[in-house]
Amino acid sequence: MDLEITLQVNGTAHRLSIDTRTTLLDALRERLSYTGPKKGCDHGQCGACTILLNGKRINSCLALAVAHQDAEIVTIEGLAEGENPHPLQRAFVAHDAFQCGYCTPGQICSALGMLGEVEAGWPSAVSPDLNAEQMSLSDDEIRERMSGNLCRCGAYANIVPAIKEVAR
């Protein structure tokens, strides 16, 4: 059954008629041509499809598009300010935090969501003080918080410093 919905993607409203079983990832890629989020595992295990939904990071392969009508959806394509890349995008380039680039959009969106979680005071499994008023981002903390995003090329050694630079 098709349903008429409106998706707010990167500040633009898109009216679609879609099957109610369509994932947000498939709607973004196949119907709206936002190719930043990638279909890696299609099971929510690799993070290649990570986007921001109302400022929180999600695996778009696990979300149904019809459930997110009028939510604020941000993909990697919506992070730059015109011709100026987002600070995380610049840091990933400066630190050579990618190789093939397949996972990079998901890594960057996840990192941005993760930094928001840290700012909000959300602890992780390795946070030394669960009641700290302000979270600090050690390398271990960044690794733990980014553990849902896999990189087949192994660029982790450069991803952590890129995120750390922006977190300062």
UniProtKB/TrEMBL annotation:
Record's keyword annotation contains Metal-binding: yes
Keywords: 2Fe-2S, Iron, Iron-sulfur, Metal-binding, Oxidoreductase
CDD domains, alphabetized: fer2
Keyword Ligase: no
Pathway: Alkaloid degradation; nicotine degradation
Gene Ontology molecular function, alphabetical: 2 iron, 2 sulfur cluster binding; metal ion binding; oxidoreductase activity, acting on the aldehyde or oxo group of donors
Sequence ranges assigned to domain 2Fe-2S ferredoxin-type in this UniProt record: 3-79
Pfam families cross-referenced by the UniProt entry: Fer2, Fer2_2
Protein's name in the database: 2Fe-2S iron-sulfur cluster binding domain-containing protein
The organism of origin for this protein: Ktedonosporobacter rubrisoli
